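Q: What would this complex look like in 3D?
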Amino acid sequence: MSKTDEKLTANAVIAQTLDEATKTDPNLLVVTCDSRGSAGLVPFTNAHPDRTVEMGIAEQNTVTVASGLAHEGKHPFVFSPASFLAMRSIEQVKVDVAFNKNNVKLIGISGGNSYTWLGNTHHSLNDVAITRAIPDLEVYQPCDKYQVKALFKYLVKSDKPAYVRIGKRKLDNVYHEDFNFVPGKAKMIKDGKNVCLVSTGEMLYFALQAAEKLENEGTSTAVVDLASIKPLDTEMLGKLAQKFDYIVTVEEHDVINGIGAAVASEVAKYGHAKLDILGFPDKPAIQGTQDDVFAYYGLDSGGIAKSVKTFINK
Amino acid sequence: MNTLALKKKAVQLRKRTWQLIYNHKNGHTGSDLSCADILVALYYDVLKQTPDTFETPDADTYIQSKGHAVEIWYEVLADKGYIDQKDLDKRYSTFNSPYIGHPTTDVKGMEFHTGSLGHGLGLGVGVALAAKMDGRSKHTYVLMGDGEQAEGSVWEAAMAAGNYSLDNLTAIVDHNNLQITGTTDTVMRSNPINSKYESFGWDVIEVNGNDIASVSNALKKPNETGKPRLIVANTIKGRGITVAENRADWHHKIPTQAEYEEGICELDAQMEALDHE
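A: Here is my prediction, written as structure tokens for the whole assembly.
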């Protein structure tokens, strides 16, 4: 990366990381569905036309073709809006990619609510729920440029199928240049005593800001990064479940079956911590800028802090 | 293998399939019998692939998109030595068996999980595209059903194959005009198939799909068109056993004891007739 404090989009970091990977991986391919512009891949596809497979606006077939390419030893990274890749193509993901254990990396771009005014057809607030329910499919949601880079370095080397959800905004920096990504490991970014926030992706930064507010108001708050949604760090979650009286998950996702449900399934085993799940309610989302919509649903830092206080004072 | 030997092989494999389905009370009988001659043409006359080489870079790939006709494929793979015949006879459709009602990669010779219809052609496009990128000589064959043509993903794949001029890809439609509910013309009209594919940039050949020599010749005809090739193989569902022929309800019907015995007599008579040719 250029300047250490410079904020970058996930797209920019991915394009750069894959470009570097072409030097060592002769089989790496980028597969697009008329999506190279949205994915920020035009410099990559211009530089590497022989590594670009354009499939047109046909997400189902794109995933299937990628499986065929992977079967023949190619390493396809498929880029499509998360809304379409994780829902329209989900049967192809399950059967052609996961059942066959073919090395296809599915990159859900413009995920969550990041398409703002384009509306609910383009938002993906259910993608984690459906992808994490598919056997042999890894699921990741990175939070900053360092994690995106480290994650994609791992994905380039890994031979396992995976789904990654990214958004559109320039990411606030959480980690540093030396960040090492380990699949299946959650990371405690900040320790605390009273309550633990567990978050993922772009929402993690809001959780960190909320933790700061809570600390200032006297509530000792831990923050855990669950970028690796599957494999899930059950060991870490087990420890959190016993250490904390209160755990609150925060995600840019429907409250049904996202990371809240993943965390709940572990926390419930210990019968100690109370859990609250913050996310989008189970109804069509209101439209607006991402910041306005987050504020509306209490997913900005102030809203998260308020929900946490209400929860622990019940 | 000459044409007579191929015909005998088809009768032999129909008999084994009939026995397997009867013994285990499970299978897509009509679909198996429909495409038996196509599989014989492929595996005994065309496909550059053996149990030892099928995973090597230049070996041809066969994808059976109409995965439900899996019993005839099991019998071909057993006969060719990919899988053990006794193991198949014993474990087909039993608890925790790899030999189930649709193809999986747990069975040697099967490169993809198929059976959810409309996936095979796209897989073939991916395989053929990768082979082209690498300059490899392999050819990819995909067998589809005619009922399957109603799946939208078939046409996404057909468009992509035409777009990429995949002349190393041959698709075959087992065109028996029947599907589980009735005729394809009454359930969802896919006819005419030929002109649809032609308009998507394919070279189309129509043959009698139950005539092995015709299928073989079409499969082996050099493709100098620069287009992917479709073989519309006109077949009779349930072909070879009168009671099952051209009847939608035999899509996955299991023969009664009387039907089974009658079918065996019929196949034995066919073999005897071929012995005298």
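A: To summarize the key features: Chain B touches chain A at residues 57, 104-105, 111-113, 116, 119, 122-131, 133-134, 152-153, 156-157, 159-160, 163 (CB under 8 Å). Chain B has a mean pLDDT of 97.
Q: Very helpful, thank you.
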